[in-house]
Specification:
Layout lengths: L6 H19 L14 H25 L3 H23 L3 H8 L4 H7 L5 H11 L2 H22 L3 H9 L3 H25 L3 H9 L16
Helix pairs in contact: 1-9, 2-3, 2-9, 3-6, 3-7, 3-9, 6-7, 9-10
């Protein structure tokens, strides 16, 4: 799938990405992120952030296994997990929180079908969340949503990549995008801990790993 001569460079990026997450984790207690307020809303926000982080780890594994089309599909899932977290934190109503917090049964599944969809959540986040968080989410959606949806639904993008190969530079961009989403998820978890010192450490840890996060040109 990927050009063998360029795999070493991608492997190095994946190793640095692992180190990036390790550095972020070092900002938290050994038993992981903790909530300053243990409300149902905060627990759901944390769950969505942890789902975003899980997707990031699976994405790195996919690219390390030379399965870039699968990794690209996971990036779309990772983005929506972070969007869900932001929506829950800044825009969800108590009724929304109640629907997502119910025990899993048929009634809960039916109620969840009436929750806002992707674009409605994004519009609400853009209106209500801080710009430093909402603007990157809106830009990611603008420039990446259609292509990533194609990977999720086995559309023209993955079919073409399967026939012609997956460019290593594109793979590197996907990994960096994933790292950016991962960093945002950890920033939200840090904010929920109630520690300003931890929030500052997590926010600025990327300065040691600028090679692992998206550049301005990659975001467009």
């Amino acid at each position: 799938m990927l050009e063998s001569a360029e795999l070493a460079q991608l492997d190095l990026l994946l190793e640095r990405s692992e180190s990036f997450e390790e550095a972020i984790n070092a900002c938290f207690p050994e038993n992981g992120p903790m909530l300053a307020l243990a409300s149902q809303q905060q627990e759901l926000v944390a769950a969505a952030c942890e789902l975003c982080i899980e997707h990031a780890r699976v994405l790195r594994a996919a690219f390390s296994l030379s399965a870039p089309n699968s990794g690209s599909a996971v990036l779309r899932l990772q983005y929506e997990a972070l969007l869900r977290a932001m929506w829950l934190l800044y825009a969800a109503t108590p009724a929304h929180v109640d629907r997502l917090g119910r025990a899993l049964d048929l009634e809960a599944e039916q109620a969840a079908k009436n929750l806002p969809g992707y674009m409605e959540m994004l519009e609400a986040v853009v209106k209500k969340a801080p710009q430093e968080l909402s603007v990157p989410l809106a830009e990611f959606n603008q420039y990446s949503r259609h292509a990533l949806n194609s990977f999720v639904h086995s559309g023209i993008h993955p079919l073409r990549r399967m026939r012609e190969g997956y460019p290593t530079q594109m793979a590197a961009t996907m990994v960096r995008f994933s790292n950016g989403l991962l960093h945002f998820a950890y920033r939200v978890l840090a904010s929920q801990s109630g520690s300003q010192r931890r929030m500052d450490r997590v926010t600025h840890v990327y300065l040691q790993f600028t090679d692992c996060v998206p550049t301005a040109s990659e975001s467009r």
